[in-house]
Structures are given as structure tokens and as C-alpha cells.
Specification:
385 residues; alpha/beta; Four Helix Bundle (Hemerythrin (Met), subunit A); Rossmann fold; 8-stranded mixed beta sheet; 15 helices; 45% helix; elongated; cytoplasm; Signal recognition particle receptor FtsY
Length: 385
């Protein structure tokens, strides 16, 4: 460990210090003949650029400059509190009511029906109308026919039960919990098209996270839409949550500042709002990639969650959004909003069959309690009730 000092000749004019007064090795001065470190020429220093990428490249890593209090010491899995029986019944009632338009076409098929080709044809039409998609519909029908034959089902109610089982099997891979406490801060980047409800979803999620004992910081990364910053600030005031915002500027810089602030404060979760954009707007999709890169420069492991908020009323267009945003960003989770009153609830089947990104939350209303974790069995029971 100290070979560097042993190789240096000991100065003859300096007598050895007694052992009890010798300085500790950790603060041993360099030998007098050790050359001073050379100052790098100016040409080797990174140039100062107005672009946020170059500015951050020239800055020290925030993970190294943040104090120890800003780092998570141990991974902590935060368990979601169990709802009361009354709250659970209320949620299931709202879910059933919200999916009533989608379920009406499916449930009426099995009333007094005979198990024949006409039933399968009507079921195929109902699934396609609900935007389950061609691939998921054909898979469900093929598996249902096999099940009916193998189990020798003879009544329509039995076929309905078999369809329920297949739908649960199809949707269960989407059912994954949002694990908290594995990083500090846990950085979540929220994306989506215009009007999907990103900002409102962020406000509702902030309340959920606080209910799980998490401190939250919001970043107003939507610097384009009028009043987007003010809307997020209202949610911040409502939930008593701090908001990092700039009146104008680069949204990547806002995200970077938010990560830095959360590290300094020891905040549990950072949620970065982004401007709505269509997948076909390539320059705006490139900006999302830039925001993700800049967040990683503030914290190497971040963002830990990249969530896409989807409007459940968009049907098959939602599947196209999932594919485009997943290809661009590498999605870790989905939030499907506005399922209440839609006839297109089958889109979850299309997502599960084609691009099974975890579905963390679904929303069936405007109230805060109308956004709940996705449960495949509850969803299917509401759909077929």
C-alpha cells in the first residue's frame, strides 16, 4: 500500500521521527522530490457549450458530490397498505360500472346461447369491437375451442367460465407491483401523448406514494404546454409536495435539477413530467431520449421507471403508442386512464398479447381514489359480470 513512499530516497537532512509522534500513514506528506501534478493544458478541458448535454458532461457526477444522507443505505420493499373492505367494495363497484359498456357486448352472448359456430362468431365480433385486437382475439377463440372440447363443456355458462379463465391467464403477466425503496431517490419519468392525463396521473400517484410512506418531489418537465407548470404546482400544493420548475428552458435541465435536489434532500421518489407528444413527432421523441440520458447523468442508475400514460378510450391507437414509446425509451410500466364509460376495455388484451409491458395502475374516474393498482382477476370479473 505504501510502496510509493518506500521507493523515494529519504532526505538526509530530516531525522526520523519517534514512533509515537510519527504522522498517520493516511496523512503522510509526499516526499520533497515528488513532482507536482501537472496542470492539464486548456485544450484538453471540455468546451463550455450551451447545450445541456455538454454542460453536464463537464460537471462532476452528482452521485459522488451528494452527501451520504442522500443515498439509500439498504433496499427496502415498501408494501402497499391493504384497503378496508368498504374501500375495496367501492372500488370494485366503480370498476364494474366503468367497464359496463365494454362488458355489455360480451356478457349478453352467453344468455341462453347454444355452443356452436354462431356463438364463436358473435364472440369474435364482440372482442374485436372492444379493441382486443386480431391477435389476442384469435388466440382466445382458439384456446376456448380447445378447452370446450377437452373438458366437454355443454352449457353457455361453462363456456363463459372458460373464457374468464383464459382472460385471466392472458392479463396476469401485466399485473406487477410498483416496487418502492429500491433506490433513493427512485426516479420516475412519465410520458404520453397529449390529453392522456399525465399531469393528473402524477398528482394521483403522488398521493398514493405518500400513503406508502414515501416523500415525493415533482419536476415540471412540460415546458411547452400553457399552464402545465401551474397545473402541476396545484397538485403539489394539494399533496404538500415540492415542485421543481422553470418558466422556460430545456426540460432535460429541469429533470437534472430535480434529481440533484432530491439527492440533496434525501427524497424517496422523483416524478418527472414531460410534454405530450405523438409518436410520429420524431424530433419530440428525440427530446424524450435526451431527457432520459440527462437523468442518467445526474444519477447513473436512473430513471428507474419509465411510465407511459394511456387514454383507455383510444383503443388500438393505444397499442401503437405502447410500441412506439417502448422502442424509443424502453418502458418499464403503463398507466391506463379513463376506462370509465369506454367500450374499448379490450385493449388490455391486445397489449398483453402483443407488447406485455407491466400495467401498474388503471383509472376509472376523475377522483384520486379512482386510480388503483391493476389486478387481472378483478378486471376480468368486472368485464364479464
Amino acid at each position: 500500500m505504501f510502496s510509493f513512499f518506500k521507493k523515494k530516497p529519504k532526505p538526509e537532512a530530516q531525522p526520523a521521527l519517534p514512533p509515537e509522534t510519527a504522522p498517520a500513514p493516511a496523512i503522510l506528506p509526499e516526499a520533497p522530490d515528488a513532482p507536482a501534478p501537472a496542470t492539464p493544458p486548456a485544450a484538453e478541458l471540455p468546451p463550455v457549450q450551451p447545450d445541456i448535454d455538454n454542460v453536464i458532461d463537464a460537471a462532476p457526477a452528482l452521485e459522488e458530490t451528494a452527501g451520504p444522507e442522500a443515498r439509500a443505505e439498504d433496499t427496502e420493499i415498501v408494501e402497499a397498505p391493504q384497503p378496508t373492505p368498504e374501500a375495496k367494495r367501492s372500488w370494485l363497484s366503480r370498476l364494474k360500472s366503468g367497464l359496463s359498456k365494454t362488458s355489455s357486448n360480451l356478457t349478453t352472448l352467453f344468455i341462453g346461447a347454444r355452443i356452436d359456430d354462431d356463438l364463436y362468431d358473435e364472440l369474435e365480433s364482440a372482442l374485436l369491437v372492444s379493441d382486443a385486437g386480431v391477435e389476442a382475439t384469435h388466440w382466445l377463440l382458439a384456446e376456448l375451442k380447445k378447452k370446450v372440447k377437452a373438458e366437454r363443456l355443454t352449457e353457455a355458462a361453462q363456456v363463459r367460465t372458460a373464457l374468464r379463465s383464459l382472460l385471466i391467464d392472458l392479463l396476469t403477466p401485466l399485473q406487477r407491483p410498483l416496487v418502492l425503496g429500491r433506490e433513493k431517490p427512485l426516479v420516475m419519468m412519465i410520458a404520453g401523448v397529449n390529453g392522456a392525463g399525465k399531469t393528473t396521473t402524477i398528482g394521483k400517484l403522488a398521493l398514493h406514494l405518500q400513503a406508502h410512506g414515501q416523500s415525493v418531489l415533482l419536476a415540471a418537465g412540460d415546458t411547452f404546454r400553457a399552464a402545465a407548470r401551474e397545473q402541476l404546482a396545484v397538485w403539489g400544493e394539494r399533496n404538500n409536495v415540492s415542485v421543481i420548475a422553470q418558466e422556460s428552458g430545456d426540460p432535460a435541465a429541469v429533470a437534472f435539477d430535480a434529481v440533484h435536489s432530491a439527492q440533496a434532500r434525501g427524497t424517496h421518489v422523483v416524478m418527472v413530467d414531460t410534454a405530450g407528444r405523438l409518436p410520429t413527432q420524431l424530433h419530440l421523441m428525440d427530446e424524450l431520449k435526451k431527457i432520459k440520458r440527462v437523468i442518467a447523468k445526474g444519477m447513473a442508475s436512473a430513471p428507474h421507471e419509465v411510465l407511459l400514460v394511456i387514454d383507455g378510450n383510444t383503443g388500438q391507437n393505444a397499442l401503437a403508442q405502447v410500441k412506439a414509446f417502448d422502442d424509443a425509451l424502453g418502458l418499464t410500466g403503463l398507466v391506463v386512464t379513463k376506462l370509465d364509460g369506454t367500450a374499448k376495455g379490450g385493449i388490455l388484451a391486445a397489449i398483453a398479447k402483443t407488447r406485455p409491458v407491466p400495467l401498474y395502475f388503471i383509472g376509472v374516474g376523475e377522483k384520486i381514489e379512482d386510480l388503483q393498482p391493476f389486478n387481472a382477476t378483478e378486471f376480468v370479473d368486472a368485464l364479464l359480470s
